[in-house]
Amino acid sequence: MSDKTPSASASTPASAADLAKAAKAIWWLVLIRGVLAIIFGIIAIIHPGVAFLALVFTFAAFAFVDGIVNIVHAVRVRNRDKRWGWLLAQGILSVLAGAIAFIFPLAAGITLGIFALSLIGVYAIMMGISGIPAAASVVDGGRKVLGFIVAILSILLGLALLVIVFVSPVAGIVNLIWVVGVYAIIIGIVLIIAAIQARTMSPAAATKPASPAKAL
Q1: At 81, is the secondary structure helix, strand, or coil?
Q2: Average pLDDT in the chain
Q3: What is the average pLDDT across 89-115?
Q4: In the chain, what are the domain boundaries?
Q5: Of 117, 108, 111, which is closest to residue 180 (Cα–Cα)?
Q6: CB–CB of 5/214 below 8 Å?
Q7: pLDDT in the model for residue 11
Q8: What is the pLDDT of residues 118-153, one digit of tens each?
Q9: Among candidate residues 161, 184, 156, 159, the one with its CA nearest the CA of residue 171
Q10: Which of 60, 56, 53, 37 is nearest to 181 (CA)?
Q11: How far, in Å, are 64, 116, 155, 170, 190 from residue 165 at the CA level?
Q12: Do 188 and 41 touch, CB atoms closer than 8 A?
């Protein structure tokens, strides 16, 4: 039994050292992502038009590349997959959507923004409607009132978003970009903190010697 004990006991420190080395190797990538997220968030708040175009072109590039991948995959599996035609059509539509977004970024961005705002509005209304019976089932009086208030506010928020979509979609899209910017800043701060923590803990964890195993 004594010859198996050292390898078993040394596996835990080795695993910790491997994880520490991995964290040390990629911490700067996480840091860069955090910094870029904060920069994008600041640009989205200060210059929402620039962030708007950046999001549109990002979507266009993704749709274009994804469409090409689907087309190539459909051609490769055409002899063994009966659904290859649907995959080919999906790829062609994705390529067309990406090309249109590149050529007409303003129109494509407004269309996507209106769709996103409408989707959020409908979701808020549905959540509010479903929250009313959930609040009614609560026994505690204070929680019941709070549940009704949250449900009603959710419905009002959804209705307000739908009204904004039809009355002033551009203003709604700008507000949505601001929300995305604030979210990006928060995510960037979290990533930077995680990178600093990984960089701080990695040297000690990587150089920590493994404790010798006692033979039984």
Answers
A1: coil
A2: 79
A3: 88
A4: 24-55+105-204
A5: 117
A6: yes
A7: 47
A8: 888 888 889 889 888 877 777 666 777 888 888 888
A9: 161
A10: 37
A11: 27, 10, 15, 8, 32
A12: yes
